[in-house]
Design brief:
Blueprint: H1 13-27, H2 38-49, H3 60-74, H4 78-104, E1 117-120, H5 127-135, H6 145-149, H7 157-161, H8 168-183, H9 187-190, H10 202-206, H11 221-228, H12 233-250, E2 259-261, H13 264-267, H14 269-275, E3 280-285, H15 288-306, H16 312-334, E4 342-346, H17 347-352, H18 354-365, H19 373-386, E5 391-392, H20 402-408, H21 410-415, E6 431-432
Parallel strand pairs: 1-2, 1-3, 3-4
Antiparallel strand pairs: 5-6
Helix pairs in contact: 2-4, 3-11, 12-14, 15-16
């Protein structure tokens, strides 16, 4: 096979332009040099917000490890360390604002989160589609994309509730998405979204400096392995508090069950169940060839924005290892669950008969699907308009093969009877549609 055809995509010219702009700004003293140092970042956030209560300081442990890993491993380019500074600053200011809201409205922390429906599956296994189908049912609560980017309302949010101001968070989300698409237009194919689209709660874990978002954005394997050895319960407790804040800001009844999902739950299912002991779980399963290929492609397309020299083979190995660990952790945690607490859903079943599959899910949830059917149809129609181009990727781009993936994840395939596409070696994993 022509080696040219199996190289992963390169970054766009927009990043080269951004690098020159930021570099010139720093040379002229118009843009400050990056200082990815914890004390400095905390000080800058405190000064910007005029507050100093960050809440539970547990997050500083993951933050220390993440910053060390960025310095030692990430090889960030100029645009990369500039955006990292912005990201850390925003997360820290949001923590300060969150504590302000908890003091101002202590009833927020009293909001119950009863029987949430949690979608648990490997990255790229159909979790987004399941989440958005359920989110189209108004009997459930869900986060929107602008809320995972900015889960904490600004200090003037009471004026928004009074109708005196516009909530700036959707505006900010729209701007961030435009920049992201300029930086890499493939993001629209990989994960179609918009400011008001239903979205996962990954940003609520990032608020504790926790989770795979960092690993899908920067090359920080030491940080990832450190997290894998830690108890994530404190991060999930803070996630729950932020979820209460989001529900309060939405002004919706706390009786409505939340629909949650993020692939991080595969690694931290025990921590999730510590915090949400009555959660109902929907496990999604997909051909590991597609899961590993698509997940690695997603991480690659993010990382090439922030680093000039990521290694595709190294990335393939890491996401194969990560997927295997997700599966192992998920299987271990569900061994302690009663079978009436969860349901398994195959990606292929959703592809061939989404309506019949969702009817089975609704029976498990003890909800009537009929009132939700029209909303689901509308979502599917909208998703077709959002996703105009298929997500193209291959295992071979990242030094992997279907034989290797199936060898590593054969137990998972057999345990959950996951359909695996038959393919000739090094050939057929060229195109995937959907998530």
């Amino acid at each position: 096979m022509d080696q040219q055809k199996i190289q992963p995509p390169r970054r766009t010219a927009f990043i080269d332009i951004a690098e020159k702009f930021v570099g010139a700004g720093r040379a002229l003293g118009l843009i400050q040099p990056a200082r990815l140092e914890k004390d400095y970042l905390l000080e800058q956030a405190t000064e910007a917000a005029g507050m100093d209560d960050f809440g539970d300081r547990w997050f500083e442990g993951p933050m220390d490890v993440l910053l060390d890993s960025i310095h030692a491993e990430a090889r960030l380019n100029v645009a990369g360390d500039f955006s990292a500074m912005q990201q850390f600053h925003k997360v820290l200011v949001d923590r300060l604002w969150a504590q302000m809201w908890f003091r101002r409205h202590p009833e927020i922390l009293s909001r119950p989160i009863k029987r949430p429906v949690v979608i648990v599956g490997p990255m790229r296994s159909g979790t987004t589609r399941m989440h958005r189908l359920l989110a189209s049912d108004r009997r459930f609560s869900h986060m929107r994309s602008f809320e995972t980017i900015s889960p904490v309302p600004r200090p003037d949010f009471e004026e928004v509730l009074a109708g005196e101001k516009e909530d700036f968070r959707p505006v900010l989300a729209g701007r961030i998405m435009k920049v992201a698409r300029l930086a890499n237009p493939r993001t629209l194919s990989i994960h179609p979204t918009g400011p008001y689209e239903p979205e996962e709660e990954l940003g609520l874990l990032v608020a504790s400096m926790w989770g795979m978002k960092h690993e899908a954005q920067w090359h920080v394997p030491a940080y990832g392995r450190w997290c894998e050895g830690e108890d994530a319960t404190p991060a999930y407790r803070y996630l729950a508090d932020l979820l209460r804040l989001v529900g309060w800001s939405q002004q919706v009844s706390s009786i409505r069950p939340w629909i949650l999902k993020t692939p991080q739950h595969m690694l931290d299912l025990k921590a999730l169940l510590n915090v949400f002991p009555d959660a109902r779980l929907i496990f999604t399963h997909r051909d590991p060839n597609a899961v590993v290929g698509s997940a690695t492609s997603l991480a690659w397309n993010q990382t090439i924005i922030y680093s000039d020299d990521p290694d595709p083979a190294q990335m393939g190995e890491e996401w194969l290892r990560k997927t295997r660990l997700q599966v192992e952790r998920m299987q271990e945690a569900r061994e302690e669950l009663s079978p009436d607490r969860y349901i398994d859903v195959q990606y292929d079943d959703m592809e061939s008969d989404w309506r019949g599959t969702m009817e089975r899910v609704y029976r498990f949830l003890e909800f009537d699907m009929a009132p939700a059917a029209a909303g689901m149809e509308a979502y599917l129609e909208r998703s077709r308009s959002l996703k105009r181009h298929p997500h193209r990727y291959s295992l071979e781009e990242f030094g992997l093969s279907s034989e290797r993936v199936q060898e590593e994840l054969g137990d998972y395939i057999r345990r959950f009877d996951v359909p695996v596409e038959s393919r000739a070696p090094e050939r057929k994993r060229r195109l995937a549609l959907g998530r």
